[in-house]
Structures are given as structure tokens and as C-alpha cells.
Prior knowledge:
The complex is a heterodimer.
Chain A: E1 3-5, H1 6-20, E2 24-28, H2 42-50, E3 51-53, H3 58-70, E4 74-78, H4 89-96, H5 99-102, E5 112-117, H6 132-136, E6 142-144, H7 149-161, E7 166-171, E8 178-180, E9 194-197, E10 202-206, H8 209-223, E11 228-232, E12 235-237, H9 241-251, E13 254-261, H10 266-278, E14 287-291, H11 300-306, H12 310-318
Chain B: H1 7-32, H2 47-53, E1 61-63, H3 70-74, H4 79-86, H5 119-133, E2 139-144, H6 151-162, E3 167-173, E4 176-177, E5 180-181, H7 182-185, E6 202-206, H8 210-226, E7 231-236, H9 257-264, H10 268-278, H11 283-306
Parallel strand pairs in B: 1-2, 2-3, 3-7, 6-7
Antiparallel strand pairs in B: 4-5
Helix pairs in contact in B: 1-10, 1-11, 2-8, 4-11, 5-6
Amino acid sequence: MREITYAEAIREALREEMARDERVFIMGESINYGLFGVTAGLRDEFGAERVRNAPISEASIVGAALGAALTGMRPVVEIMFADFLFCAMDSIANEAAKWRYMIAGQASASLVIRTPQGSGLGMGCHHSQSPEWVFAHFPGLKVVAPSTPYDAKGLLKASIRDDNPVIFFEHKMLYRMKGPVPDGEYIIPLGKADVKREGSDATIVATSLMVHRALEAAEELAKEGISAEVIDPRTLSPLDKDAILESVRKTGRLIIAEEACKTGGFGAEVAAMVAEEAIDALDAPIRRVAAFDVPIPFSPPLEDYVIPNKDRIAEAVRSVV
Amino acid sequence: MIIDVPEGVMLDLYEKMVATRLFDLKVKELIEKGHRILYHSGVGQEAIPAGVCAQLRREDYVVPYHRGWGYMIAKGMDMGRILAELLGKASGYCKGKAGTHMACLELGVLGKTGIVGAGLPVAVGAALSAKMRNSGQVVACFFGEGASNTGAFHEALNMAAVWRLPVIFVCENNLYDMYTPYLEVTSVANIADRASAYGMPGEVVDGQDVLAVYEAAKRAVSRARRGDGPSLLECKTYRWYGHFMADEHHYGGYRSIEEVEAWRARCPIRKLRDRAISKGIPAQELDRIEERVRAKVEEAERFALGSPEPDPRIAFEDVYA
């Protein structure tokens, strides 16, 4: 199978969906090129109307996407860094998440917000966060965080066709990662987890970049005779609880690896969910591996220290098997 | 300048304003009897929604704000179902889930947010959608002068102007941001002056004169319909009652009885009535309109109070499409 990058896979999804459905348009700050180059070239193909450079106005970009969606369009907007979602928090959490509910389904907020998340580029605390779980808190929103080019393409196409507001978190350290992506169209349904590696001694639930670190950890653990299963939920909301529970029932141990800070995060939710639904299946305490509860520092060694790596994940697994 | 309109238009504006007034007073009466309704009275400001909406077509969009229900009445929504929604009944426009934030997409009423200023970007998006779909629709977006101090106002006006979108921003300046005189917290005496910063026409209108509003809206709507972009209309007006129901100290508190009485003397309905009579329309004809409207309001009350409460299970509906 051909291999393309995560960024190319996303661009392909955008191109295919724009060609398929004239209601789909993309909008964002310097979207004609895109800071990470994801949307480069699309303007030549689809024109400035449908590849729309927006002012630096995150609240209005999302608010306008909502207004366009309610009246029959299918906007896909780019927020240049996930950190900037907070500038649009009202438009996202109060308006987009609730509008359809409030008006009893008379129209849908069929919009997608694409945004790069994550650390690793030494960009400091306003360009390095992973706030995906913040948005999973709000009913009405869907939250997607793909870890591979294959998942990125199939999930973005599903997100664009979804009639709900979807926040699509792209990891900036994954943009240049290559992986197999088949020619032609395919869709990955939202809300379906993927087992990235099978194992029998412990379950590691990880998302986005942490999937790769969990896989590296699993590789190392395998040499020690520990068999770790790595599950990537791919969609944080809706969360594929069944896939996680099934794996935990098989392995009896759960480790959650996430890039965001530990307190009140994705790991806390998954741990609580498993404790509620399957505590009898656990042979050991649940372990959470997360960023320390500090803002992401600028200095590369400090940044590396704060974010979970393969060693911290592996150590957490060893501590419970 | 004396503005002249055909007799039919005058009578229609009169009916819409009277309906808005009597409906508002009915809501007040129901609250005083103990019904729980979120109430921001629009009494005194009836000329603005009536005058602006009279320039709109059925398929044009309206994004209302929190004060009053004139937009809904003027757009043709049924008073019985509006009241049922305000009371949280199953027969309301949104099954009781929106209350005062209700929508009627069929009549272009997109719904209103509880966050001051947040409707402006949504209106811009609806206008963008109308432009991209080449539908010929325009959008009227209502808000108070307080909203013009939010970031969303400034983002939305810039975005609408730079993309020449068919939207009319209608500011109802009733001189108070809750209990604060607006000049204490606003840098300009006329909100309309802010239009020039965004390269769009801004016009100060006497909000007590429905014909002046009607004519100004005509200019703005035709400009939008021609593809020449947005306008900002600032209608100077006054609310007779408090900011909301619990605000009992609207006399002698943050504003004087003399001020309130002076504005009551400039009642927009009486002003139009006097004009109509001076144009030769018999007073009896105007009385007949009032009687007809009064009967409709009574009927609306019977319908709403007699409607069933929603089934609690619908709380789970419409969260996701």
C-alpha cells in the first residue's frame, strides 16, 4: 500500500469531501497555505470562496461556522493552535454544542473544527497544549484525535459528514509521519476504538501521539516478557467504552497514557468509568501516565521532562504486572 | 423629514407593535401570577423589531437578542406557541427546551443565545452561507448597546464588512447595560459611529418612530440584497420596565422617575397611532386592530396554559443529530 504523511492524509480528506459536496468549505487564518501546510494547494483547486482566509478572530470563525452550518453549509474551520480554542470557547461550548439541542433539532450544527494540538516543537505554553478532554466534557460536541495517517483520513471524512459539531485534534508532531493509506475512499466511523497492538498482561489506553509512545513501551516490555495491549479510542467523545472494558476484562490491568495534565483529564474519566463498570476485572490499581500538572515550559529539556515518554509508560506497566 | 408609507403598511406595523406590547404585558401578568418565565421586557422598544422585520421576506434570517419577542411576532411566529415555549410546554416551538431562546427555522428565526454579543458571529455565518449559496437571503441581527462592547461585536463587524455579507446589525440602544448607564462603560455616544471603523455605513435612528426604523431598514436591506455588504443601524430607545423581572428598582434606583416618564410619553405605538389618525385613518379602525390582537393574546394564553408539560425523556433528545 502507498505511504503518505498524516498531513497529506488530512489534505486528501478535505479535497475529496470538497469535491464530493459543494456545501463543504474551509476557513481559517492564512488557510490558503496553513501554518503546518495541511491546506496548501487547495485554494488553486477550489478558489478563495471555499478556501477562505479569515481574520484573526477565533470566536467569530467558529460562530460564523455555526451560523453557516445552521443554514445549510458544512464548514470545516482551522484554529491554528488548539490553545486558541479558548479564544472561541463561548462559540464552541455555549453556542455550537447547545444550539441544536435548544432549538429541538430544527437545524444541525454540522461543522468541523480542525486544530493542531500537542507539545514537542518547543513552542511554549500557549502553543503546546492538548486540551481535547476539556471539550469532551460538553454534551453536543464530538472530539476526535487520530494517531495515524490512515485514521486521520478516515476519521476526518466521517467528521465532515457528521451532522454534529466535531473538534478534530491533529498532533503537530505527527504531521510528517508517514503511514499506509489506501487509494480511494474509506470512512472510519466516529466512536470506534482501534486495537493498535494486542496483548494479554495489561491494557494501555492512549490517544494521539501517546499511542506511538505506548507502542514503543509495549515493544520494550515484550522483551521482558510482558505483553501489553494498546488501545487507541480515536474518538474521545463518543468514547468506545466497550472496547476498553473488553480489553481490561482480558488483561486485568489498566494504564492510561495521555499528553495533557493529569488532573481532571481523560485518564481520570477512563479510570472512573472502568472502576464503575468493571472493578471486579482489575487485578491491580489503575495507573495514569500524564503530563505533570504544570503549563508546558519552553525549554526543550523541560518540555521533554513534563510530557510522558516511553519510559514512564513502561514503568507504569511494570509497577502493576 | 416626514416619512410616508402606504396605509396598509402603516396598519400592519401598528398591528405588529400592538401585538408585541400586549403579548409582553401578558407575559408580565403571568409571571406576577407565579408562572416561571425568563423575562426581559421589550415594552417601549416595539418599533424596532416591527420596523426592521417589515422589510424582510419570509426566507430571510433573524437573530434576535434577549429583550422582548417582537422579532418572533413580526416574523410571523404564532403567539400561542411562543408563549407555550416561554412556559416550557411541549407545544412550544422547541418543546420547552429553549424557553426565551426559541427558534423557528421555517420562518428564518435562527434562535438566540443567552450570551451577550454571541449572536453576532452566528448572524455573520448565516449571511456567509446565504452569499455562498447565492440564495438572495439577508440576515437581521439584533442586540443591545452593551453587546457592542464585546469582542464578538468587533470581530463580527470586521468579518461581515471584509466579506461584504448581507447582514444588518441592529443595535437597540436603550441607554442601560443592566443597571449601568451605557456612557459609563462605553467610549462613544453613538454606537453607529463604530461602523466607520469597519468600513460600513452606520446610522442613528429614532427608535421610537417605527416609520423611521422602517425606512432605515429599507436602505440597509436593499444594500445587503444588492451585494453591497453590511450596515449598522443604531435605534435610540428605552425600556419602560427593569432589566428583568427581579429588577424592581427601575424607578428611583438607577434611573429617575422623570426619565422613565419622559420616555413613556414617547410611546412608539401612540406615535404611530397619532400619525395614522392625522393621515385620515379612522380611530375605530385602529381600535378594531387592538381588539383583534387582544383576542389573539387571550387565545394564546388559553392555548399555552392548556398545553401539556413535556415528557421528561425528551431531555435526552436532540443532543446529537
